[in-house]
């Protein structure tokens, strides 16, 4: 397209030049002008087709939304108007000037002047003809008076007297009789034709202005020479006199100009149309070539803008690799350089941001990993006490599902999870009370029967870092229970030590008193003594049992671990309770062996069954279910009854000494059971069953897993 437009532009310029040259050169105009017009018309048609194709392409680009198409249209219109307006003015002026000029060529005064000049020249030539004719007639008379033999000598004298350049005497048949001429005369005279000879024989002189090749314009006069002798035929005298060169040149110029003027006068309308067509074709050539060139220039101007638009769209999509070559040093080139610099800086900034983001993600992941593996719950708040982040352990301690509290204000925790209302209120009160000062508080959390003791620590983040609050809390329920267990163990040890020692002497003293004085007293007194001493002995025995129970609780059991079939152990313990009405077994098959001490686990099962039977003492339809099952974390033993269950107020202290619902007993059974299960690295959990009943769940590790951990 580019080379085609440039070729058309160049050919059009050459044709316009040739048309103008042909107009100035008559011969070239007459010979080649029609061909030039045909070629120019063909080029105009070709340019018209080219412009039409460009317009169709431009319309298609506009329809498809190609960037820069509208700019191309605008530039084409601007360039077209820039070429059309001056061209139209020049075209109009040229047509008017041409019309006026052609009309001025054929003005009446010019016509008269040319006619007068032509007549003047013709008159001068006619005068030369007449003078030479007179000289010829005078010489013919002189020759006629002399005999033919004297004509040769007389001819030269007559020529010299008359001042004629060349004189020739012919016979009536045109044979040369005598020739006379000066130094400018030719070597041979011009022979008159038969027509001239016939005219002269008819006694009619011949006079003409003739052009002789290579010699110029001559006046030729041929007259008859009538001899006096009847025996001789007439002779013919021819005189040749050159026309003066200046006069011949002027006469020829006037004649040629008049002839050309007459020809132009005949083709005046054709000239107008021809020159008008020439101007129109030149105008169309210039306009179409300008429009085609404008399309090409606008395409070249729009190409960098189109590339920049494409690059801008790529940048908007996040592609910063767009780099466009700079082909010029103008404003578009500077704009392209600026765009390349911008994309390079954006790419560098994105790479830096990506590196920073990766570092932040790594730091965040590192922080999340630390928070996830902390043994404390951590909650971060903003200034409005809205949760920014919370670690998994905090959600686990608060017993909420993942993501429940994220983005929720502390005051709204109760609406999301009612169990958190009291805890959230206590935390909010501490933050409000202490403000920017750090605080530490032990807070109870949870419903009755499942209360937890949390040690919470809150602080306000420093200004300039990230305004907000941080709450850190630990579940110290097990720690407090361990402290209580340790305290009870110490109490039990001291009680066992302090009480057990005097019990034996008391019992021995009571038995000795009975043995020594029973026989010496009256029967009634002896009976009283016996009853009293027996009471002392029985109470001492009860106290010994209690002291032994305390001692057993205080003493850390020596666990002898081995692989045990739990189902077989359950059946072995149940054999002691046969017959056992209301007792059901639901033992899982293919149960893996557990790691435990057979004697201690037997004591655990026995204590739990005894507690269940005691709870069902007043039940009309006692029912106990023993079941085993395999879980993800080990093997579970469940003992469930349909008794009254445990009082809610006692649920938190079931595993503490003296925590019992029995009218008699020390309340050490569940405490000892819990201690034995913990020594087995297991877990015990007690819950009430609605509408009535209780269940005890014991989880023991699998033997293979326990050995691997050891």
- What's the helical proportion of residues? 55-70%
Q: Uncertain runs with pLDDT below 50, 5 residues or more?
A: none
How many DSSP helices? 18
Average of the residue pLDDT scores: 76
* Cα separation of the termini: 87 Å
Structural class: alpha+beta
What would you note in describing this structure?
This protein is α+β, with helices and mostly antiparallel strands. Among the domains are: about 1-105 and about 260-310, no CATH class; about 120-245, Beta-Lactamase, CATH 3.30.450.20; about 480-550; about 560-700, Heat Shock Protein 90 (2-Layer Sandwich), CATH 3.30.565.10. Helix content is about 60%, strand content about 15%. It has helices at about 1-25, 25-65, 70-105, 110-145, 150-160, 195-200, 245-265, 270-315, 330-375, 390-400, 415, 420-435, 475-515, 525-555, 565-575, 600-615, 670-680, 705-710; strands spanning about 165-170, 175-180, 205-210, 215-225, 235-240, 375-380, 385-390, 440-445, 450-460, 470-475, 560-565, 585, 595, 625-630, 635-640, 685-690, 695-700. The strands form four sheets. The chain has a five-stranded antiparallel beta sheet, sandwiched between helices. A five-stranded antiparallel beta sheet has the order 7-6-10-9-8. The longest helix has about 50 residues, at about 270-315. It is rod-shaped. The two termini are about 85 Å apart.
């Amino acid at each position: 397209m580019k080379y085609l437009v440039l070729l058309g532009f160049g050919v059009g310029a050459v044709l316009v030049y040739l048309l103008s040259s042909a107009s100035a050169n008559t011969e070239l105009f007459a010979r080649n002008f029609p061909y030039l017009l045909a070629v120019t018309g063909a080029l105009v048609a070709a340019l018209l087709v080219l412009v039409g194709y460009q317009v169709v392409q431009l319309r298609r680009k506009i329809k498809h939304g190609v960037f820069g198409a509208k700019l191309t249209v605008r530039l084409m219109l601007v360039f077209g108007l820039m070429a059309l307006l001056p061209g139209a003015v020049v075209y109009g002026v040229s047509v008017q000037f041409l019309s006026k000029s052609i009309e001025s060529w054929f003005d009446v005064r010019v016509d008269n002047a040319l006619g007068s000049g032509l007549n003047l020249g013709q008159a001068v030539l006619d005068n030369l003809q007449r003078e030479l004719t007179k000289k010829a007639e005078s010489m013919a008379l002189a020759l006629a008076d002399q005999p033919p033999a004297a004509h040769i000598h007389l001819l030269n004298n007559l020529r010299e007297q008359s001042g004629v350049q060349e004189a020739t005497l012919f016979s009536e048949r045109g044979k040369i009789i005598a020739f006379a001429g000066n130094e400018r005369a030719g070597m041979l005279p011009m022979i008159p034709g038969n027509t001239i000879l016939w005219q002269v024989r008819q006694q009619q002189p011949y006079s003409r202005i003739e052009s002789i090749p290579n010699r110029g314009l001559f006046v030729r006069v041929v007259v008859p020479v009538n001899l006096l002798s009847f025996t001789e035929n007439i002779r013919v005298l021819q005189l040749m006199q050159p026309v003066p060169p200046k006069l011949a040149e002027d006469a020829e110029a006037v004649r040629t100009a008049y002839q050309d003027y007459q020809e132009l006068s005949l083709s005046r309308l054709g000239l107008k149309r021809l020159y008008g067509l020439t101007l129109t074709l030149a105008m169309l050539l210039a306009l179409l070539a300008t429009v085609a060139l404008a399309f090409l220039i606008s395409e070249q101007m729009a190409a960098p803008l189109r590339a920049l638009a494409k690059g801008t769209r790529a940048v908007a999509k996040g592609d910063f690799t767009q780099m466009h070559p700079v082909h010029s040093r103008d404003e578009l080139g500077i704009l392209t350089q600026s765009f390349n610099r911008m994309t390079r800086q954006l790419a560098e900034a994105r790479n830096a941001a990506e590196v920073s983001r990766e570092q932040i993600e790594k730091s965040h992941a590192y922080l999340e990993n630390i928070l996830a593996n902390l043994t404390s719950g951590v909650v971060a708040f903003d200034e409005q006490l809205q949760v920014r982040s919370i670690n998994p352990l905090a959600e686990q301690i608060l017993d909420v599902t993942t993501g429940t509290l994220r983005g929720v204000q502390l005051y709204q925790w109760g609406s999301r999870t009612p169990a958190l209302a009291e805890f959230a209120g206590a935390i909010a009160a501490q933050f409000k009370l202490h403000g920017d000062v750090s605080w530490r508080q032990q807070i109870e959390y949870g419903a009755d029967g499942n209360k937890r003791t949390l040690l919470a620590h809150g602080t306000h983040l420093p200004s300039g870092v990230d305004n907000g609050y941080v709450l850190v809390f630990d579940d110290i329920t097990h720690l407090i229970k361990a402290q209580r267990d340790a305290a009870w163990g110490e109490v039990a040890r001291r009680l066992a030590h302090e009480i057990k020692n005097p019990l034996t002497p008391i019992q021995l003293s009571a038995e000795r008193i009975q043995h020594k004085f029973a026989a010496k007293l009256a029967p009634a007194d002896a009976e009283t003594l016996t009853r009293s001493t027996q009471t002392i002995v029985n109470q001492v025995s009860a106290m010994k049992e209690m002291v032994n129970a305390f001692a057993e609780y205080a003493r850390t059991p020596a666990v002898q671990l081995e692989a045990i079939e739990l189902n077989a152990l359950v059946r072995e313990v149940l054999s002691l309770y046969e017959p056992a009405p209301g007792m059901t077994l639901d033992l899982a098959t293919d149960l893996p062996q557990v790691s435990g001490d057979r004697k201690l686990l037997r004591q655990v099962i026995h204590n739990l069954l005894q507690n269940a039977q005691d709870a069902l003492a007043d039940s009309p339809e006692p029912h106990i279910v023993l079941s085993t099952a395999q879980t993800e974390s080990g093997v579970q033993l469940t003992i469930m009854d349909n008794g009254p269950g445990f009082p809610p107020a006692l649920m938190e202290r079931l595993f503490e000494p003296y925590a019992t619902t029995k009218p008699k007993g020390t309340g050490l059974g569940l405490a000892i059971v819990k201690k034995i299960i913990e020594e087995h690295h297991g877990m015990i959990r007690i819950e009430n069953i609605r509408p009535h009943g209780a269940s005890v769940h014991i989880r023991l590790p699998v033997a293979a897993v326990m050995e691997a951990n050891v």
